[in-house]
């Protein structure tokens, strides 16, 4: 199956209540992607989005997810981030919670393979994205929920 996206691509995710959220692919391996997502909401594909204004530090969510939305045609690549590099958009550590065993800081390499798993105390609540791979529907639902109160940017 031909790839219809690449690292650094900016894409639209349809929201369940109408409109679109926006994300960027930071890594990909087979059909698992790592994306950064922003609290931006659009009625339709933006005609004049300042791509360079999309900064890693402004992303509210980082998540691994499946690529099915692209292949079904509901997720659309709209641009490529001109300043994308793997060095700038690294794979962060994630926080994994495994009941009843506890919490772990998990690291992944550029192929999204787990490389390290460090136990941390149950009371640990560092500012790390939650570990796990989301289906495309889960991404749409999470973005819809998080962008519910956000105004439309276009």
Report what the structure shows.
The chain has 154 residues and is mainly beta. The protein has a domain at 9-90 and 131-146. It has 2 helices and 9 strands; from the N terminus they run ββββαβββββα. The strands form 2 sheets. It has a 6-stranded mixed sheet. Strands 6-7-8 form a 3-stranded antiparallel sheet, with no helix packed on it. The radius of gyration is 16 Å and the shape is globular. 26% of the residues are buried. The model has no long low-confidence stretch (mean pLDDT 93).
Main sheet strand line-up: 5-1-2-3-4-9
Helix content: 10-25%
Alpha carbon gap, first and last residue? 33 Å
**Shape type:** globular
Number of helices: 2
- Biggest sheet character: 6 strands, mixed
Number of strands: 9
Overall structural class, as computed from helix and strand content, comes to: mainly beta
In short:
This protein is mainly beta. The chain has helices spanning 68-72, 136-146; strands at residues 9-14, 20-29, 32-42, 61-66, 76-80, 94-98, 102-108, 114-120, 133-134.
List its salient traits.
154 residues; mainly beta; six-stranded mixed β-sheet; three-stranded antiparallel β-sheet; 2 helices; 9 strands; 38% strand
Topology at a glance:
Blueprint: E1 9-14, E2 20-29, E3 32-42, E4 61-66, H1 68-72, E5 76-80, E6 94-98, E7 102-108, E8 114-120, E9 133-134, H2 136-146
Parallel strand pairs: 4-9
Antiparallel strand pairs: 1-2, 1-5, 2-3, 3-4, 6-7, 7-8
């Amino acid at each position: 199956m031909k790839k219809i996206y690449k690292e650094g691509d900016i894409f639209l995710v349809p929201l369940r209540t109408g409109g679109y959220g926006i994300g960027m692919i930071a890594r990909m391996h087979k059909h698992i992607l790592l994306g950064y997502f922003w609290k931006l909401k659009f009625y339709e594909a933006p005609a004049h989005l300042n791509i360079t204004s999309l900064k890693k530090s402004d992303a509210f969510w980082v998540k691994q997810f499946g690529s099915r939305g692209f292949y079904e045609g509901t997720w659309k690549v709209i641009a490529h981030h001109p300043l994308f590099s793997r060095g700038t958009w690294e794979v962060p550590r994630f926080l994994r919670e495994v009941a009843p065993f506890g919490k772990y800081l998990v690291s992944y390499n550029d192929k999204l393979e787990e490389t390290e798993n460090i136990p941390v105390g149950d009371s640990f609540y560092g500012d790390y994205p939650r570990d796990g791979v989301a289906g495309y529907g889960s991404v749409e639902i999470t973005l819809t929920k998080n962008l519910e109160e956000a105004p439309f940017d276009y």
